[in-house]
Amino acid sequence: AAGLAACSTGTSPATRIGPASPAVAGAERARRATGAPVRQVSLNATVGEVDLGGTTVRTWTFDGRLPGKEIRLKRGEVLQARLSNGLPQPTSVHWHGIALRNDMDGVPDLTQAAVAPGGQFGYEFTVPDAGTYFFHPHVGVQLDRGLYAPLIVEDPADGADYDTELVVVLDDWIDGTGTDPDAVLAGLRANGMSMGGMGSMPGMGAGAMQGMGGTLLGGDAGDVTYPHLLANGRVAAAPTTFATRAGQRVRVRLINAAADTAFRVGIPGVPMRVTHTDGFPVSPRQAEAVLLGMGERIDAVITVPDAAVPLLAAAEGKDGYAQVLVQPGDRRAGVANDAALATLKTRPVLTVTDFAAADAVSLPEKNPDVMHDLALAGPSGKYVWTINGKTYDPKEGLPVHQGQRVRLRFVNMSMMYHPMHLHGHTFQVRGAGGRGPRKDTTIVLPGQTVEVDFDAGNPGQWLAHCHNAYHGEAGMMTIVSYV
Ligand code: C2O
Ligand code: CU
Which of 126, 179, 273, 386 has fewest C-beta within 10 Å? Predict the structure, then answer.
């Protein structure tokens, strides 16, 4: 495009602004107010048994809980988190969506050394923006074992247009009785391909592909699939209950922590007023169903009806669902029936490009100083997922300079969802009239192109990758590199 200084060549590590550079320390100083309150937490990554609701599995969690214990603090506060690694593998913690100092981002070999079994690491950073976030390791496919927990940053200036809150973390669950995510990944690599990776689809619009979700793990009859879908650690048949009162306004914070499943979320008959995407406010929008890709979050306010209702999360393009029962008073709730699920699946489903950032968080209009294309493609032969034809190489990156307006263009040339996540920044999706929602993860539907803009103001080395844990690990990952 005319007037754009596009660069697409890699950078050598010698020219990079590294995680431990003065620029990174300077960015942290600029974020931290004198006397900012400090929150201390400890996180023990551990092996043990958890009850999914009648099914007990042996797996890896933070502190034996699924999801791990929520961390909640206020914007501007400092989080000090001490990680102890009780796992048989090295690990780390990545603070998904937080614009933090680069050396606390939790990416082994890029921003820190992995924490060895038996080892510890102290994370410390200022949390600059309010919102709904979560955290998970950034090693292999450990996320898919159950190592995740919500991170909620409150805004002291929030008008609080609701009475109470419900945090819902969604997950897909392999089985825990002999098959684990590492084995699944090894199996995919041995089989060499997935169902959705083949070919590009010129001219295929996203609309035409709605409903064709990822069936990656079911691609071969002998492959492992996800027998369970979880909401707050519980299978659909034994859901958690949210006790409330009719007429209460509930702020629901929905987090998709699944490795390979996008969810269609909604409460049949109860409209949701979507207020935030990935923590940042949008022009509020009524929705009956919203598609939530892996790594994406929404906040929505609902008014509790007189009778109990299921908050449903149906796996998009797959069978199965998860649920939380919203139960006013002491009325007993029924488990979601097929009719409620079928209703949800017929409702119009909103996705990223249906939302627009609130004025207060919209980026000022500006032409990009630099533009990078990221062509997303799947296996043809070997099980690798690529960006611009390459798998992850820590020596390469997409160069940006401090102060630049950067545009990333995600071009999905495959038949699967790719929820593309950028570390350390919240970009603005270019929607209608250029103004889409602020997000850090944007699902890119099969055949779709999504453009996002951000201002380069957080120096360091930042991953940009697909939040399908298997795609990311199989190569669909690159670095936005401050030089
Ligand atoms: Cu939640 Cu690099 O990701
Ligand atoms: Cu992907």
Answer: 179
